[in-house]
Amino acid sequence: MKILIVEDEVGISNFLKQGLEEEGYEISLASNGFEGLELATNNQFDLILLDWMLPKLPGIEVCKGIREKNKTIPILFLTAKDTVQETIEGLKGGANDYIKKPFSFEELLERIKIHFRISDGDEILTLSDIKVDLTKHQIFKDEKEVFLTQREFELLVYLIQNKGKVCTRTQIIEDVWDIHFEYDTGVIDVFMNAIRKKLNLSKEDDCIKTIRGVGYIAN
Question: Which of 13-17, 69-73, 141-145 has the lowest mean pLDDT?
């Protein structure tokens, strides 16, 4: 698996490079936003670790630029920013996840593994007029392809695989995010809003319902 690290602090980038290479990943480095965007859009990577505060071009703009070219590659923000508004800004900008500095390498490694995880189950999943091809990592609605981010894809697959069951926000955080500690479950709503928008679903749609104060259910 090839990972691009866009980080201007040499100590952090070298530490991550060494640790991830020891885990078997192939690592490329960029030290500013322009360089990171150029590498990300002109090369094939499986995941991007992106610092928010970068010289020449802010991480959020790098993220948006990458998303214009690649809708599915997982992008994880490495950031000291941790307010809800900043988190939402990053997610709306196309990020799949974020990890707050300072962080443990073990936590980062687990987050990366989550995004590389292959979904179990049938190769083709269906929900109303939505079809999900797990093998090809494609989603179709009314036979028209819809492009979701990796995290959005994983969340939609989880709801479909648990069709007919109420999935609480806590369950989603634990089963999809693989996070078993206190975490702001409000980010799930951000992802669900994005999924509904891309699939042209209303909050009242029977396909995926919001259970107020609890979570979601796919029917």
Answer: 69-73
CATH tag for 124-218 (out of 3.60.10.10, 1.10.287.3510, 1.10.10.10, 3.40.50.10330): 1.10.10.10
Tens-place pLDDT, residues 133-183 = 876 778 998 878 899 888 889 899 999 988 888 999 888 888 887 665 566
Interior/surface letters 26-49, b for 16+ CB within 10 angstroms, e for the rest: ebbbbbbbbbbbebbeeeebebbb
CATH architecture of 2-116: 3-Layer(aba) Sandwich (3.40)
Contact by Cβ (8 Å): 142, 199: no
Q: Give the CA distances from residue 161 to residues 121, 122, 127, 175, in Å, rounded to whole numbers and listed in that order.
A: 8, 9, 10, 12
Q: Is the pTM for the entire model greater than 0.70?
A: no
Amino acid at 126: T
